[in-house]
């Protein structure tokens, strides 16, 4: 049984030809100095080869493969949904490295196209598209992780100097130490609470008043960071939307996060399942009926995930969270956490040993360690279930602030 996710949804000759074009380009270009990047830089491995992956971003951009879904007038290819799905699937199938520019290309860029000013688009889109400027996301805080509306970072407009002054702390900030800019959700109206009184700011990281500290993880990496703002500054015009509209912009950005790139994520998951199957065959674990059943369930879960993602793309507008999109994070994060457990059970007692010479062993250990966080980051299970209930099913909000 092959576990590859084939493009059963692609039916036209033109789309098949485009799939071959993407696959051929990747086969010809993930070579030479870039060959080492195959299957590197994904979740839990984001510290791998940062300089070379930045060079890969520029290489993609030079060939027009950096921002395939952006409108042509903003420097993208303007591909339709079907071809964007093809690109993301083939990129993952070829072992394309984790995108150093993902936050800019997949999140901030589309948000600026939809909600930014003409000046903001002219200033920031070219650097993102060409792989010259990289971005981090400033959402979570020590006291406001899953409950983002509880954030306390504050921004004050200094009209005399034409600047926003920023003070506070962000945490779990992916690759902030490799980024030049960060978008920050901050409270700009004194006395405001919850979702009210927030602003969405674009802030340079290389300045006095910004301190970036790495967070070492159980897997050994430290792609996450704490970012401290101590009277940091950004230009007054570097606000997306109006003061008080920060929550609306932030939610629009999260809608792009659950967009077309999810199909590439699933191809990455498929490769993990295939790797687990190969290791199970090689070490004899596949002889266990219980493990074979779990492998079959993992494969079935992938198919459910794919069909829901296609339904999500068909049923919701990009940049907004449809009902289908509301369940996506809860589903994949629990499925992926279980896959990490399966990987360790297939490794057996050798999973407790470090073997840097065995690439499959390293990848499965890394899979297990990183998936411990899947049901926590980007909104914990509990928060996701509240969102599904309240926004998807229209149920009453859970009482808050009561004993």
Q: What is the structure about, briefly put?
A:
The protein has helices at 13-29, 50-62, 81-93, 102-115, 118-129, 246-257, 261-283, 289-315, 323-347, 359-371, 381-392; strands spanning 135-138, 154-158, 163-170, 181-187, 198-204, 210-215, 224-235, 239-240. It has 403 residues and is of the alpha+beta class.
Distance between the termini: 53 Å
**What is the residue-averaged pLDDT?**
89
Q: Describe the global form.
A: globular
Report the structural category.
alpha+beta
What is the ordering of alpha helices and beta strands?
HHHHHEEEEEEEEHHHHHH
CATH superfamily annotation of the largest domain: Butyryl-CoA Dehydrogenase, subunit A, domain 3
Number of strands: 8
Cα-based radius of gyration, to the nearest Å: 21 Å
State the name of the first-level CATH class of the largest domain: Mainly Alpha
**Which fold does the CATH topology of the largest domain refer to?**
Butyryl-CoA Dehydrogenase, subunit A, domain 3
Low-confidence stretches: 1-10
Count of distinct structural domains: 3
Which CATH-level-2 architecture of the largest domain?
Up-down Bundle
Number of helices: 11
Taking the sheet with the most strands, its summary is: 4 strands, mixed
* Residue fraction in strands: 5-15%
Proportion of helical residues: 40-55%
Spatial sequence of strands, sheet with the most strands: 1-4-5-8
């Amino acid at each position: 049984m092959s576990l590859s996710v084939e493009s059963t949804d692609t039916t036209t000759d033109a789309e098949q030809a485009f799939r071959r074009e993407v696959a051929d380009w990747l086969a010809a270009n993930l070579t030479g100095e870039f060959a080492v990047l195959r299957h590197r830089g994904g979740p839990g491995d984001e510290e791998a080869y940062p300089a070379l992956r930045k060079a890969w971003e520029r290489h993609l951009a030079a060939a027009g493969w950096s921002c395939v879904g952006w409108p042509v007038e903003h420097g993208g290819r303007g591909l339709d949904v079907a071809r964007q799905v093809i690109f993301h699937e083939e990129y993952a199938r070829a072992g394309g490295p984790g995108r150093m520019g993902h936050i800019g290309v997949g999140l901030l860029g589309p948000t600026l196209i939809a909600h930014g000013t003409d000046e903001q688009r002219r200033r920031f889109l070219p650097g993102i598209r060409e792989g010259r400027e990289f971005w981090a996301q400033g959402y979570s805080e020590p006291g406001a992780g899953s409950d983002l509306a509880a954030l306390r970072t504050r921004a004050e407009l200094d009209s005399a100097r034409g600047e926003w002054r920023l003070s506070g702390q962000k945490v779990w900030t992916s690759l902030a130490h490799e980024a030049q800019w960060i978008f920050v959700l901050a409270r700009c109206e004194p006395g405001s609470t919850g979702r009210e009184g927030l602003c969405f700011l674009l802030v340079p990281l290389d300045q006095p008043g910004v301190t970036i500290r790495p967070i070492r993880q159980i897997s050994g990496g430290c792609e996450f960071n704490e970012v401290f703002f101590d009277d940091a500054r950004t230009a007054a015009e570097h606000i997306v939307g109006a003061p008080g509209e920060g929550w609306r912009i932030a939610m629009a950005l999260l809608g792009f996060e659950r967009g077309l790139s999810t199909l590439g994520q699933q191809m990455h998951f498929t490769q993990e399942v295939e790797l687990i199957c190969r290791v199970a065959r090689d070490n004899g674990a596949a002889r266990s009926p219980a493990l074979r059943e779990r492998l079959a369930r993992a494969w079935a879960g992938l198919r459910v995930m794919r069909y829901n993602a296609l339904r999500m793309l068909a049923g919701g507008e990009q940049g907004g969270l449809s009902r289908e999109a509301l369940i996506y994070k809860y589903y994949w994060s629990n499925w992926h956490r279980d896959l990490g457990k399966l990987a360790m059970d297939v490794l057996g007692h050798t999973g407790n040993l470090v073997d840097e010479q065995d690439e499959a062993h390293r990848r499965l250990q890394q899979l297990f360690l990183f998936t411990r966080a899947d049901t926590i980051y980007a909104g914990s299970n509990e928060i996701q279930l509240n969102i599904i209930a309240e926004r998807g099913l229209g149920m009453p909000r859970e009482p808050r602030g009561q004993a």
